[in-house]
């Protein structure tokens, strides 16, 4: 899609649909919306008075212009209450409005920058948020469907800003918004791929391809290399599948010689049957999304590789398929992870923490000074936080705060769970150093504490996205179905914010 910022008067702009806005409770529009209203002979004011336009968040009202201005239609997008307005509302409003425009068949959509005028937000951040929300909202996954006549597409998107200086700054910001959205949409694409296509080898190949496009180094470990490194936990998970495991590492060197290296480690189980501790059949198809942590890392690395912050970042992607084959591991097996710790396999369905254990060890070996892992790890996290927020478990308050702040700035919700020492006894084993399940109580926390045993002294935060990777609670920038791309934007923003501190 082509995106431009034009320094023009809104009433002179040609487009199939022109998006303006209105706060909840405003009876006579001002600013750009006021200009359009006057050019239309007060049509918007009339609709407010008749109660058809209220300005509620997400409301989009179509007004036909009948030749009074060059734009064929005007879409009035509700901004909600002025007190609650922020950049996240800008994304939501932009997504809702452009979807409506697309449904109407508009190929060229123009918009004012919500929040840049009356909303009093920073005009650059507002422009980035409009583009981000627009591209996230328009996302579809049609890889395996014939394109129909009815598939409508927005081809051109124009932002209008009368002030030429501001418009220039907004063009740079629009590029940033585009990069954030495209990285997220890449993560969504990977998540939505069917598990027969996106095998561990295919996922590693996709990661390598993204690295190559960005001019970044990428290392892919095969099973043999993993064996040499002592990755017994990861190999144990993979052994029940005919598909060999892989570990892809994308290396971004934004600060050569710098002493900070952030590692993003994403769970890449391309399909989780549960293994010998087999899952029930109902809903098992959703377990193709068990690689969404890995997908978010690939997406974030793409954003980071394009925006080039001054920090070193490793994208670590351990990937395997959890199958109940004749060579599959059993409950009762004991495996040894790369750091030498032994693990009793209590349940083969607690496989995510096993592949992450070795990946976290490997990130430390590569020199990571901060580690963030991302995983669709536990049903318990879905019970605790639903499909609204992702869970956070961390061994370091500073890193946890940074993650929460980056999440807030991205409009992706996180909630930190307690990680008291008392929980640790639940993952003690009678036969090994640890066991891979902690029982029903506090399942999301004990899973996190299991991972903490492999992060050891390195500052580390774990993001459990089991409830948010694909069944996110309704928000306009998220498609009704499929992968959300969460938390690719938060991860990239975290890298940017850490870079600012050095
Ligand atoms: N991939 C699942 C977690 C999951 C559940 C993700 C629901 C998305 C939706 C994970 O591998 C798993 O099976 N976890 C088990 C752990 C248990 C055996 C300790 C779980 O949560 O039931
Ligand atoms: Mn599982
Ligand atoms: Zn899993």
Main β-sheet, in a few words? 9 strands, mixed
What is the terminal separation in angstroms? 36 Å
Estimate what percentage of residues fall within beta strands.
15-25%
- What is the CATH architecture descriptor of the largest domain? 3-Layer(aba) Sandwich
- Measured as a percent range, the helix fraction is 25-40%
Q: What structural class results from the helix and strand content?
A: alpha/beta
- CATH fold naming of the largest domain: Aminopeptidase
Specify the oligomeric state: single chain
CATH superfamily of the largest domain: Zn peptidases
What general outline do the C-alpha atoms trace? elongated
Low-confidence stretches: none
- Structure summary, number of beta strands: 18
Provide structural commentary:
With 502 residues, this protein is α/β, with parallel strands linked by helices. The protein has two domains: 2-183, Leucine Aminopeptidase, subunit E, domain 1; 194-501, Aminopeptidase. Helices cover 37% and strands 19% of the residues. It has 14 helices and 18 strands. Strands 7, 8, 9, 10, 11, 14, 15, 16 and 18 form a nine-stranded mixed β-sheet that branches. The protein has a six-stranded mixed β-sheet with strand order 1-6-5-2-4-3, with helices on both faces. Helix 4 packs parallel to helix 5. It is elongated, with a radius of gyration of 24 Å. The model has no long low-confidence stretch (mean pLDDT 97). The protein binds ligand BES, manganese (II) ion and zinc ion. Manganese (II) ion (MN) binds at residues 272, 274, 349, 351.
């Amino acid at each position: 899609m082509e995106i431009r910022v034009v320094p023009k008067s809104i009433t002179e702009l040609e487009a199939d649909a022109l998006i303006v806005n209105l706060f909840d409770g405003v009876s006579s529009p001002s600013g750009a919306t006021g200009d359009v209203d006057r050019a239309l002979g007060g049509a918007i004011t009339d609709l407010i008075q008749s109660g058809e336009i209220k300005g509620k968040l997400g409301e989009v009202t179509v007004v036909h212009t009948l030749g009074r201005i060059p734009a064929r239609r005007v879409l009035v997008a509700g901004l909600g209450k002025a007190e609650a307005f922020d950049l996240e509302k800008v994304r939501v409003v932009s997504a809702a409005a452009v979807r409506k425009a697309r449904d109407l068949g508009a190929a060229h959509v123009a918009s004012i920058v919500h929040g840049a005028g009356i909303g009093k937000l920073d005009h650059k951040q507002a422009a980035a948020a409009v583009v981000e929300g627009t591209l996230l909202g328009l996302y579809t996954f049609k890889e395996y469907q014939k394109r129909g006549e009815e598939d409508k597409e927005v081809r051109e998107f124009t932002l209008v800003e009368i002030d030429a200086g501001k418009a220039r700054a907004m063009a740079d910001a629009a590029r940033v918004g585009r990069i954030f959205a495209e990285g997220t949409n890449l993560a969504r694409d990977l998540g939505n791929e069917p598990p027969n296509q996106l095998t561990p080898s295919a996922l590693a190949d996709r990661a390598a391809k993204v690295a190559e496009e960005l001019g970044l180094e990428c290392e892919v470990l095969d099973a043999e290399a993993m064996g040499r490194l002592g990755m017994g936990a990861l190999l144990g998970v993979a052994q029940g599948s005919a598909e060999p495991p892989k570990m892809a590492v994308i290396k971004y060197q934004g600060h050569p010689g710098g002493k900070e290296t952030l590692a993003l480690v994403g769970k890449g189980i391309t399909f989780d049957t549960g293994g010998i501790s087999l899952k029930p059949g109902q809903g098992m198809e959703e377990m193709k999304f068990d690689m969404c942590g890995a997908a978010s890392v690939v997406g974030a690395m793409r954003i980071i590789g394009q925006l080039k912050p001054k920090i070193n970042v490793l994208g670590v992607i351990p990937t395997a398929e959890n199958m109940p084959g004749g060579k599959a591991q059993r409950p009762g097996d004991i495996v040894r992870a790369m750091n030498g710790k032994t693990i009793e396999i209590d349940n083969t369905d607690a496989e995510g923490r096993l592949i992450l254990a070795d990946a976290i060890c490997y990130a430390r070996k590569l020199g990571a000074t901060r580690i963030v892992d991302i995983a669709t790890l536990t049903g318990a996290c879905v019970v605790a936080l639903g499909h609204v927020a992702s869970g956070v478990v961390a061994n370091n308050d500073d890193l946890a705060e940074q993650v929460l702040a980056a999440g807030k700035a991205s409009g992706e919700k996180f909630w930190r769970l307690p990680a008291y020492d008392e929980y640790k006894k639940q993952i003690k084993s009678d036969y090994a150093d640890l066991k891979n399940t902690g029982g029903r109580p506090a399942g999301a926390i004990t899973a996190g504490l299991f991972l903490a045993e492999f992060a050891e002294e390195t500052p580390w935060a774990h993001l459990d996205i089991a409830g948010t990777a694909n069944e996110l609670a309704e928000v306009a920038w998220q498609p009704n179905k499929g992968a959300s791309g969460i938390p690719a934007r938060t991860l990239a923003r975290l890298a940017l914010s850490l870079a600012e501190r050095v």
